[in-house]
Write a structure and sequence with these properties.
244 residues; alpha+beta; 2 domains; 4-stranded antiparallel beta sheet; 3-stranded antiparallel beta sheet; 7 strands
Length: 244
């Protein structure tokens, strides 16, 4: 069986999302400039690819080489290959098969299912996470480091717009100045959370509870209740949540 290959991830974005709705399988990003690869798996490829095409997600996960590479080199310089569609129960076994076959350079973990194994956070990531925990905007140092990481890259007009819009959100969250009191009725600040899928030991960071709820197709109130109750019981027997 021949599986899809998208030679230009930027141009093929809509097709990638459309083709992979409600499908589980193994995928591979390939940098067309240096031929470095990243192999991953997901029980819902459509949701996973939406995350990759979200600049907020990439900036929140710069500890992952593939996220930094996509930001630096642009989607137009990456191909995306579906290596195999398979059942959820086969994902880790089949992912390991392709790891052994291709030895992907962008993968940090030592083996599938252990995303944090052998991983160390960069100084940029530490600053970003520190700022997030304090509930502050990113420091000038963080912005400079993110900017420096982009130097020398050639982004498409679409990607430049995404990054520009994201930078505005980082610099002006909620359109309030640092230290300025939020006006009454201005709403609740976004709460960044980590969602861990205990069935395959993968963790994804989301910029807000509402973003996590959309990705998991559940109600925000359910997530807020679990966070408030500090329950260790996985939601739907699968997901645990943690503020950061």
């Amino acid at each position: 069986m021949k599986f899809p290959k998208y030679n230009n991830a930027d141009i093929c974005k809509d097709q990638i999302l459309s083709d992979n709705k409600n499908k589980s399988g193994i995928y591979m990003w390939t940098n067309l400039i240096n031929d470095k690869r990243y192999i991953g798996s997901s029980k819902n490829l459509n949701i996973r690819f939406k995350q990759y095409f979200n600049a907020n997600y990439l900036l929140s996960n710069t500890c992952m080489y593939i996220c930094r590479a996509l930001l630096k080199h642009d989607y137009s310089n990456f191909s995306l290959t579906i290596l195999e569609y398979c059942s959820v129960f086969e994902l880790l076994i089949r992912e390991k098969h392709y790891w052994d076959k291709y030895t992907p350079e962008y993968n940090i973990a030592q083996e599938p299912g252990a995303p944090m194994s052998g991983r160390t956070h960069s100084e940029e990531s530490k600053i970003i996470m520190s700022d997030a925990k304090k509930g502050t905007t990113h420091s000038n140092e963080t912005k400079t480091k993110i900017s420096d990481a982009m130097i020398g890259s050639s982004h498409s007009d679409n990607t430049r717009k995404i990054i520009s819009d994201t930078a505005k959100k980082i610099s002006h969250p909620g359109r309030f100045k640092p230290g300025q009191q939020r006006p009454e009725g201005s709403g609740i600040p976004s709460q960044q959370i980590e969602v861990t899928d205990v069935t395959n030991n993968t963790t994804i960071c989301y910029d807000s509870i509402s973003e996590a709820a959309r990705a998991l197709n559940c109600n925000e109130s359910s997530i807020r209740y679990i966070l408030k109750s500090n329950s260790n019981k996985p939601y739907k027997g699968q997901y645990t949540f943690k503020k950061f």
